[in-house]
Write a structure and sequence with these properties.
Elements: H1 9-15, H2 23-33, E1 57-58, H3 61-64, H4 68-75, E2 79-82, E3 85-95, E4 122-127, E5 131-138, E6 145-156, H5 158-165, H6 178-184, E7 202-206, E8 214-217, H7 227-230, E9 235-238, E10 252-253
Antiparallel strand pairs: 1-7, 2-3, 2-7, 3-6, 3-9, 4-5, 5-6, 8-9, 8-10
Length: 254
């Protein structure tokens, strides 16, 4: 009688894994089974790219017309939508009136005029001649305050994001910086003054999920500002996501 072929150790181990149906769940189960083996793990988007967005409601104007320091943490977990691209906001910075790091300090000029508009509009400016920086105007008309969108994670439209970014990856490097977010959304300064609460174009949507873990820290790249503004803890990020920008070691739990 023939001896049955011996199954490999790998096959035996695979058979012991829990029965799962998705590639992501299967990979997680394998990593837990073989946690003693160090290896590189690709970071997948936090939300499935097939997530449906019609049920996400556009945020109303009054949501934005509050102090930038109050608006900033409330924007965490909200969604930005333009065409087929939807991003989840994971990191922001608040810029307030009388803030020596805020563009409003220059007064109402052709460049800064959008930041003095009513809350809920976009303020997009060109940084270093390279990066389009998306800000969401806060507070009442004439105040001069905004929230900078520093980082996001992809929800839908990954291929479009990769094409615009010129980077074929699904790791956080794709969207962990304000210039990267502007590029992924295909923005230009012409988007300034755009109402983010109106259907079509660029919208801010409510994801319906509260963010439980929030990190705070000083804002990035404002060494020119007064010490009290350099040290102000006006940077906010979701605490349990890798989709945030550097430096991360200055962020602490709220």
């Amino acid at each position: 009688m023939k001896t049955p072929p011996r199954r490999s150790k790998r096959v035996d181990q695979e058979s012991e894994l829990p029965k799962v149906t998705t590639p992501v769940a299967l990979r997680a189960a394998r990593e837990k089974k073989h946690c003693s083996k160090a290896r590189a793990v690709r970071v997948r988007p936090e939300y499935p790219l097939t997530r449906s967005t019609p049920e996400m409601k556009i945020m109303p104007p009054e949501f934005f017309q509050i102090d930038a320091l109050d608006l900033a943490p409330r924007l965490l977990g909200k969604f930005l939508r333009r065409d087929n691209v939807v991003l989840r906001i994971t990191e922001v910075e608040a810029y307030r009136p009388n803030d020596s790091a805020c563009h409003g300090r220059f007064g109402n000029t052709p460049r800064t005029a959008p930041i003095f508009g009513p809350g809920g509009h976009a303020y997009v400016y060109l940084c270093y001649g390279l990066h389009m920086m998306l800000n969401i105007v806060a507070d009442k008309d004439g105040v001069g305050a905004a929230v900078l969108i520093r980082s996001c994670s992809p929800v839908t439209g990954l291929e479009t994001i990769q094409e615009r970014r010129g980077q074929k990856t699904d790791k956080p490097v794709l969207l962990n910086g304000p210039g990267k977010v502007g590029q992924a959304l295909g923005l230009s300064t012409e988007w300034s003054h755009h109402p983010l609460y109106s259907p079509g174009g660029l919208e801010v949507l409510d994801g319906g999920e509260d963010v439980e873990k929030v990190l705070v820290g000083p804002r990035v790249g404002i060494d020119y500002a007064l010490p009290q503004h350099v040290n102000a803890l006006w940077r906010f990020a979701i605490g349990d996501t890798p989709w945030i920008s550097a430096p991360k070691n200055t962020l602490k739990p709220l």
